[in-house]
């Protein structure tokens, strides 16, 4: 929220000489109810009751809202009225200060300075309101003279009983030059002069917020509300402070803020956000629909995301998916965050979109994610999607990325990578991965088991004996627990028995492996049959010798 550009205390001269509506407008400005202030000031102007101060106030409100062109128009019209009414420049000094403020914001520094000095000369540096206004204008502009502003405030302090306003503006000057400690000092001094000055607490809170001193800024915003329960800027800050910490407390503050701030469509957005935050999804959806109807094409695109999350929470993935599509259509790409892509990816997956489209959303989420742990989870899920789709080659690529991403990959990471490569037919690469597994976890069976499987498929004829050393290693590791590893041992014995019988023609060695199979599984039909055959061959060989 924009800082207050004017203080009620700085407009005493105006208030004393005008109707109650002007006093009310000044109060609106202090509480940052700018729309209400503009309405009342325009009403005074339309009734032809406006003094130069009214024009000044209206122009300053526009400047505080960033409406530079509107402010220029108001200052020019006010000056025209003053000239036409034969009001001396000295008597309308604040109005001309407003014009100088505008010029300073536009970057016409020399012209603005010349006008300010002229006004100060006209008032002989004795008009505290003019001194404060010039100081405030310089504080508000990047190209303003901050040292000069502080010097003028020293003069103003000697010429006004309202020392609180002078000290407050001095705090503003120091705040604009990033001297937070001095700014806080002067804000505290202003509060000592006027304990009801909630604005001083609020501005200290803003400093601590910039410094990310959570405890300190929460205390100052709370103090501001304690000092003045109607001070909307502090209520706004407190609401969002608690929104992410204590939604119940935020719920108490929201109606207070709405009551004490200008009527605004923003209130409906805040209410809708609150309803979603407390999981009142149906009510949040109703509020969102009303906003869309009233705002039309001007509705904030983020509302479609809220609708999507609400629909998803109500298990309506179809409508949630449609809402997220609208969000991505209308929202500025600079506003996208990782969670946006993640939700779209999850909804796309649920809608059974093509694997390629779903994965693309997950990849976008991954690219936008800055948390290592969350990035890892996204990689793992992408790998899972490819595995589920039967695209083991793509799965293997992501399994490798997972290992490269993790500081200390574990045995399961290597296992999943190796198996994915194996299933993709990349047996040589899979063998290399399981070689790493064997080296790192020599006491586990999975390394030699899968190395044996890989090499068996590389050397399908067994002629090179590539799988043999790995099956022997498997037997060595698996022998520590023959019950748990029975299946692996039977496989290894069977392969080696076949290798010895068919490649090396060492029937006795082959028979030995089959006998080991029978020791584990006495009813194994293959082992029984081949044992008989081998014994016959051995006997025949003995008979021929």
Structure, explained:
The structure is a single chain. This protein is mostly helical and 545 residues long. Among the domains are: 1-176, Tetratricopeptide repeat domain (Serine Threonine Protein Phosphatase 5, Tetratricopeptide repeat, Alpha Horseshoe); 458-545, Serine Threonine Protein Phosphatase 5, Tetratricopeptide repeat. It is built from 30 helices and no strands. Helix 8 (128-140) runs parallel beside helix 10 (163-176), helix 24 (411-423) packs parallel to helix 26 and helix 28 (486-504) runs antiparallel to helix 29 (507-520). The chain is elongated. The termini are far apart.
Provide tags for this entry.
elongated, Serine Threonine Protein Phosphatase 5, Tetratricopeptide repeat, disordered N terminus, 545 residues, 30 helices, mainly alpha
In short:
The protein is mainly α and 545 residues long.
Order of helix and strand elements from N to C terminus: HHHHHHHHHHHHHHHHHHHHHHHHHHHHHH
Count the E strands. 0
> What's the name of the CATH homologous superfamily of the domain at 1-176?
Tetratricopeptide repeat domain
CATH overall fold name of the domain at 1-176: Serine Threonine Protein Phosphatase 5, Tetratricopeptide repeat
Instruction: State the CATH architecture of the domain at 1-176.
Output: Alpha Horseshoe
Low-confidence runs: 1-19
Distance between the termini: 105 Å
Assign a percent range to the helix content.
Answer: over 70%
- Just give the CATH class of the domain at 1-176: Mainly Alpha
Mean of residue pLDDT? Answer: 93
Major sheet size, sense and barrel closure: none
Total helical elements: 30
What's the gyration radius in Å?
A: 40 Å
Give the helix/strand class: mainly alpha
- Strand percent estimate: under 5%
Gross morphology is elongated
